Amino acid sequence: MPYFSNGARNDYQQRRALEAFLSWWGNDHPELAAGDNPVSSVYGAPMVAPSGIHLWAWDARPWPAFPSDTSVWADGDNWQLGHWLNGRLGGCGLDGLVRAILSDFEISVADVDVGTLAGSIDGFTIPSPTSARAILEQLATIFGFISADTGTALAFRSPLDHPQEMARGDLAEPSPEMALLSATRAQESKLPSEIRLSFTDPTRDYARLAIASRRFAGLSRRVSDIDLNVAADAGMMQVAAEARLRDAWAGRERYAFALSETGLAIEPGDLVTLDGALIRITQI
Q1: 92-157 architecture in CATH?
Q2: pLDDT tens, position by position, 64-107
Q3: In the chain, N or C: fewer CB atoms in 10 Å?
């Protein structure tokens, strides 16, 4: 595996790499005309012509027969972590999908911040009248992001955001009878011991599948079944189920505190570290 890789399929990394290259050598950076991609004085075109860029690799073998039918093509298993565009290029990045959903509900994307969202899925179905919130909650179940109203925009925060460091000196006493920092812990019986995600797998002829992640320690026997209108890879959904179960237990502690004027920049969705704990701000 590459350094720092967990061995899971990640179409979003491939998509971001392609966007970076195509943006750099395309028309998105006109300042490159005099530098990295100069315009020829002979033929009047850039040294690297966007129309001459080719992507590796679109396989002539039909997807999803390739890679599914390994009895015919022995390299089918390589597709899962390989460079193929077949079965991937038609997917959608999470940031673009969130913008598209909000636009469909006539919510101005100019007032939306999706800068830190990362991830991609193959497809999403809206089978009946619903709300934008209900749709976004399904996506949050998979990717673990949270949404917050910052007062000036609707912000979507990734669980991979870099945390801000806070100290006890940043806290303020809200009142004499309230503690500077209070913490409550949810009962184990109220936490899930197993999370099951149901979804559609495009590589299995769009069959409905269920992926589960189970916790064997603790006293909880609660099972959480979540039915998703998502088309996605089974490996990615397994990672999502494990992450959501881990988040449920890691987030069983809730903190309450007040901030002095030094903490005015903190907004809902931010990650902070305080007294050795990693805390997601959910409400102000």
Answers
A1: 3-Layer(bab) Sandwich (3.55)
A2: 889 888 999 999 989 888 889 988 888 888 988 999 999 999 98
A3: N
